[in-house]
Amino acid sequence: MSTDENAAEELLRGPEGLGRRDMPTSWTRRPGIEPTPDFLAMIDALRALQDDVTAAVPPPDVLVDTTKTLSELSERLRAYAAPERDQLTGRLITVPGRGQTMSPVLHLDEWSEHHARGHVTFGRFYLGGNGAVHGGAIPLLFDEILGRLANTGGRRPSRTAFLHVNYRSITPIGVELQIEGRFEREEGRKRFLTAELRHGDTLCADAEGLFVQLKPGQP
Ligand SMILES: CCCCC/C=C\C/C=C\C/C=C\C/C=C\CCCC(=O)SCCNC(=O)CCNC(=O)[C@H](O)C(C)(C)COP(=O)(O)OP(=O)(O)OC[C@H]1O[C@@H](n2cnc3c(N)ncnc32)[C@H](O)[C@@H]1OP(=O)(O)O
């Protein structure tokens, strides 16, 4: 089993795990709806498209053609729109990236209840300027790793209350970066976590997050 599958199993485990029946319905999926390799291939193609659109400066005829094709694709997929509960993107916790393209794909290499380590590459889509990742994309990644850690180990669901990010040096696009997160402590409903993002020996950014355990019925 891959580290991502282990992490997913951990998330869903036990009477207090995220598989509980009182989990908010928006985070659960109806049984029987599973991603197919074709669905995941579509998501990968969309990631590549995001990078290519970001970089491209096409001539007018290519632009017109591309826009027409994209509009046709949108219309085709819109016919298959499902309610949130049945949506696949973002819910595929056994798959690196969870089948969504909003944040870069987080690959988990090590996982425990209190610690996570992984790697990630920000594509051209996430460019802010001068080869550096956009400052808004970095918290997405921190929220992803800390959100998973905050809600693992049979802990009841929690939401991010704050996420403080320090940008220590630029975060380069197109290279593999290392990320590490830690569950620091718990005080009642409050869970404090920290994370660092590194390129080799260079600390790019670090973060502290507070996650607050949801009360029953809290959305
Ligand atoms: C729906 C559950 C989600 C769980 C999903 C988990 C796993 C799913 C599986 C896989 C997914 C994989 C990865 C997950 C990736 C990301 C998950 C990230 C989750 C999010 O990204 S989610 C979106 C952003 N998030 C929000 O949309 C929250 C909006 N907000 C609220 O929903 C409320 O605001 C809430 C609930 C946070 C608190 O509200 P509340 O009424 O329950 O509690 P209250 O205000 O009393 O605070 C209690 C104590 O926390 C202290 N406190 C509160 N806020 C503070 C702050 N900002 N600074 C300092 N202290 C703070 C108080 O001071 C008090 O402290 P004390 O007890 O010591 O006085």
Can you give a write-up of this model?
This protein is an alpha+beta fold and 219 residues long. The protein has a single domain (3-31, 82-213), classed as Roll (Thiol Ester Dehydrase, Chain A). It is built from 4 helices and 8 strands. It has helices spanning 3-12, 37-55, 60-78, 137-150; strands at residues 107-111, 115-121, 127-129, 132-133, 158-167, 176-187, 190-199, 202-213. The strands form 2 sheets. Strands 1-2-6-7-8-5 form a 6-stranded antiparallel β-sheet. The protein has a two-stranded antiparallel sheet with strand order 3-4. The protein starts with a helix and ends in a 6-residue tail after the last strand. 22% of the residues are buried. Bound molecules: ligand 3IX. It is found in: Cell projection, Ruffle membrane; Cytoplasm; Membrane. It catalyses: dodecanoyl-CoA + H2O = dodecanoate + CoA + H(+); octanoyl-CoA + H2O = octanoate + CoA + H(+); decanoyl-CoA + H2O = decanoate + CoA + H(+); hexadecanoyl-CoA + H2O = hexadecanoate + CoA + H(+). Belongs to the THEM4/THEM5 thioesterase family. This is Acyl-coenzyme A thioesterase THEM4. It is an enzyme of class 3 (hydrolase).
Small-molecule binders here are: ligand 3IX
Give the name of the CATH superfamily: Hotdog Thioesterase
State the strand order across the main sheet: 1-2-6-7-8-5
Decide which structural class fits the backbone.
alpha+beta
